[in-house]
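INTERNAL AUDIT FORM
Audit reference: QA-55
Scope: verify that the stored structure record matches its stored sequence.
Auditor: D.O.
Record contents follow.
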Amino acid sequence: MNIPGVIDHITDWLREHCERTGQRGFVIGVSGGVDSAVTSALCARTGLPTLCVEMPIHQAHAQVQRAQDHITWLREHHPNVRMEVVKLTPVFDALVAALPKDDDPRQLELSLANSRARLRMTTLYYFAGVLRFLVAGTGNKVEDFGIGFFTKYGDGGVDLSPIADLTKTEVFAVARELGIIESIQRAKPTDGLWGDDRSDEDQIGASYPELEWAMDLRYRGMDTRSLTLSDRQRQVLAIFDQRHAANRHKMEPVPVCLIPEALKR
């Protein structure tokens, strides 16, 4: 991959899209992970106003520190970048207190984790509305189009997706080229929705390189019956297939009930 060329291409695409839509800049939620670090750096490279928003909700200290260190580094290199910290923990706690409890602890935990992502989306769109900015998504190709590892109307609620055609491995390569701080490049990928240190791999059961392998296999339409696969490879394929099927609703347009013309007369 021509990494400098990819960086220039995405930067130009961001700038052109913003100017074409008549908006003034970008707003990005910065989590302390590599995807949001790369996305915010690419937005900053456009020279357009770029707002990085840090939104802790019972966040691990290391995640908060990485996010703030990244934004500090970004502002040192790009005068068009500014930062906002919106502490959403009290808002989240108030929401939890107001909601009825579910009898299924695991389903309750998952629903509340997704609620964190939706609170952050609401916050980003507040700034976008006030400033006439675009909300830049931070999802990569495996998350957005492989296993649907994002929250519908949470981190999936964005105006444009600059890195959604890059795998996680490619995102890390872009991060190295951009000079993203080492603490972010070394950190295990996590969605930061649980208030603990569980990683994406802990949740999914497979690493991003493994998922990229499975996604490539499926997208090329290869007949796995003709391949000699290890037990682990078959397990990874099963994980990918299950996630892809279960989250298909996130990756397709919302179904619309079309009324027959005869019923409208």
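Auditor finding: record pair retrieved intact. The longest strand covers residues 25-29.
Action required: none
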